[in-house]
Amino acid sequence: MSISLILLVSILSYSFKDIIGYRVVALILLLVVSISAMLFDIFPVLVSALLSAIVLNFFFIPPTFNFNIDTSEDVLMFSMYFIVALINAVLTFKIRQFDRKKQNEKEKEKSIQLYNTILNSLSHELRTPIATIIGAIDTINDNETKLSQENKKELYNEIEVASNRLNRQVENLLSMSRLEAGTIKPTYDWFDVNELTFSVIKENANDAKEHTIVFNPNENLSLIKIDGGFLEMILHNLIHNALQHTPAQTKILIDVECVDGTFNLKVSDNGLGFPKEEINFVFDKFYRLNGTSTGGTGLGLSIVKGFTEALNGHISLKSIKGTGASFSVTIPVETSSLNHINNE
Description:
The protein is an alpha+beta fold. The protein has 3 domains: 2-99, no CATH class; 126-181, no CATH class; 189-335, Histidine kinase-like ATPase, C-terminal domain (Heat Shock Protein 90), CATH 3.30.565.10. The chain has 10 helices and 8 strands. The chain has helices at residues 2-15, 17-20, 22-39, 42-60, 72-125, 127-142, 149-181, 193-203, 228-244, 300-310, and strands at 189-191, 212-215, 224-226, 251-259, 262-269, 314-320, 324-332, 334-335. It has a 5-stranded mixed β-sheet, covered by helices on one side. Strand 4 and strand 5 form a beta hairpin. Helix 3 packs antiparallel against helix 4 (42-60), helix 4 runs antiparallel to helix 5 (72-125) and helix 6 (127-142) runs antiparallel to helix 7 (149-181). The chain is elongated and about 110 Å long.
């Protein structure tokens, strides 16, 4: 490409050599070498610099069609041209090399920072439920005859809660890795969103003991064609995020509707809300608000965004600090005139 560029410009310049003169041609060829230096590696640029010097000498500097140069002025011009072209090529390559090195250093620093963030999050989020499970099992084994049925029930409940928490974190990590790898593809089928919503609320019942989840099913909502697993993951993470990061007695509202081929899901609460300056970052991986309570890896909302976009949808957040938050998900869907499907 660099050789072709030199030859093309040389041919065009040769057509107008009587008008522009060979000194202007030298400047044009030098410009082409400079452009090549910004586009290509050092070897093709050096080749183009050498080729342009040969072309300039043979076809443009009088006497033409040989390598003799009659005047000392033209000898000096040709020598300066060749030197400047080589220096320009080398310096431009060095600058590009330096820029690449700085960029690699920034990416490496960013990777280390991300690794530390992941490690800090996982060190607590995975070790805590594991420690709870091991501790409860050890207590049961060491005091099996001394523990009352009520004590055993409490320990079994702790194991169940810790296991669910551990499973949730592992699922989030696997989901995020699959999203980033692009291996998750939606599988569409017909779903009753009201039924799916009640199912997700039931899954979060243990975490919602100090909260109130309000969902009034939309009786006019038709069946929609969507990936039910994706939608369940979106709704689950939005509800879990609200339960985890709002104070006790907070009310969480869920609204679903379908208008003109667009499914709308809204999950809102009357909790503390988000600071205005944080709203643009809440969907970033491993991002957690300063001062939030311990718990979570900061993956939930980024997974919600990933699954929503996999369904060609969009998610937005409206929030004023101190007055609560409202997440809105919109997804284009097909709708059915049937409100339910009979079991076959």
